[in-house]
Amino acid sequence: MAVETSVAAPDAQRGQWAGTGMVLGSATAFGTLAIFAKLGYASGLGTEQTLASRFLLAAIGMIVLALALGQNPTRLGRSRLLTLFGLGAVVYTGQSLTYFIALRSLEASLVVLIAYIYPSLVVIAGWLFLRRVVSAWHGVALAMSFAGVALLVGGADFHLSWALAWPLLLAIASPTIYTGYILIGERVMTSVPAVAASAVIMSGAALAFCILAALNHQLALPRNAGGWAVGIGIALFPTMIAISLFLAGLPRIGAARAALLSTWEPVVTVFLAVVVLGDRLSLVQVAGGILVIVAVVVVQAAHLWRPGLPNALK
Q1: How many angstroms separate the CA atoms of 51 and 49, rounded?
Q2: 186, 181, 250, 199: which is closest to 75 by C-alpha?
Q3: For the stretch 5-19, what's the b/e string if a residue is b when 16 or more beta carbons lie within 10 angstroms of its beta carbon?
Q4: pTM above the 0.70 mark?
Q5: Rounded to an integer, what distance in angstroms lies between the CA atom of residue 214 and that of residue 258?
Q6: Which structural domain, as residue segments, surrounds residue 54?
Q7: What's the domain count of the chain?
Q8: 238: closest CA among 14, 86, 53, 74?
Q9: Is residue 50 part of a domain?
Q10: Residue 7 lies in a domain
C-alpha cells in the first residue's frame, strides 16, 4: 500500500503541473481574441462576418472532437439540445456581438479589462436572483472591480461623446450578458458532457451569426490573405485550442484553481495590444486594470464564486 501511495503521489503532481500548463495555455489563447478581432477589422472583415467564420469553423471542429471522444451531441436529448442551442444562439451570441462591436471603436486593452468585471457581476446576480450569501470579501471585490472600471474609463485619453458612449455601453453590456450565460449554464452544463455541450452551443452561435451576416450582406469569404489568416486564426487559437485546453486541464486542477489561473488572460491581451496594436494605457488606467484583475483574484482565491464548465467559452 505504501509503495502504491508513493507512486501515485508523483503521478498526481505531474497531473497538477500538466493541468496548470493547459489552463495557462488556454488563458493565453483566449487572450488573443481581441487582437484577432482588431486585425480582422484592419483587413476589411465585418463584425458579423468575423464572428460567423469564427463560430462556423469552431463548431465543425468541436463536433469532430466530440465525436472522437464518444460524446455524440445528438444523444443529449431534444430538450437539452434545444436549451444548449438556444443558449448559444441567443445569450452567447449577444455577449460576443456586443464585445466585438465595442472593439471596433475602443482599444482592445480597455475592452478586455472592462469585460473582466463579470465575476463581480456574477456575485451580484447570485445575491439578487439566487439568494447566495454576500460576505465582506464580496464587498471588497465588488468595490475594487467597479473602482477599476471607473479608472479605466476616466483615465482614457479621449473626449467622451455619443459616438464613444455607445461602444462603452456595449463594452459593459458584454460582461453583463455573460453573467446571465454563466448562471444559466451552471444548471444546464452539470448534467451533460462538456465537449458535446460546447459543440452544440457553438453551433447555435454559428447559425445566429450566419443569419446576422446574411442580413447585413456580410456572409462572404474573406477578400485577401490577411482576412483568411484572421478567420482561421480566430477559430483556431482563441476558440478551439483555448476551449479544448481548458476542458482538458479543468479535471486535473479543479474549477477554483482553473478560474484563478484564467486571470492570466487579460494580462496577455493587454501585453499583445501594446506590442501588436500599439495601445497605450495611462497610469490611471494601469491602476484601474490592476484593481479589476486583483478583484477577480480575490473572488477566486476566497472561493466566493466557483465557475463551472460554461466558462470554457468566451
Answers
A1: 6
A2: 199
A3: eeeeeeeeeeeeeeb
A4: yes
A5: 37
A6: 12-312
A7: 1
A8: 53
A9: yes
A10: no
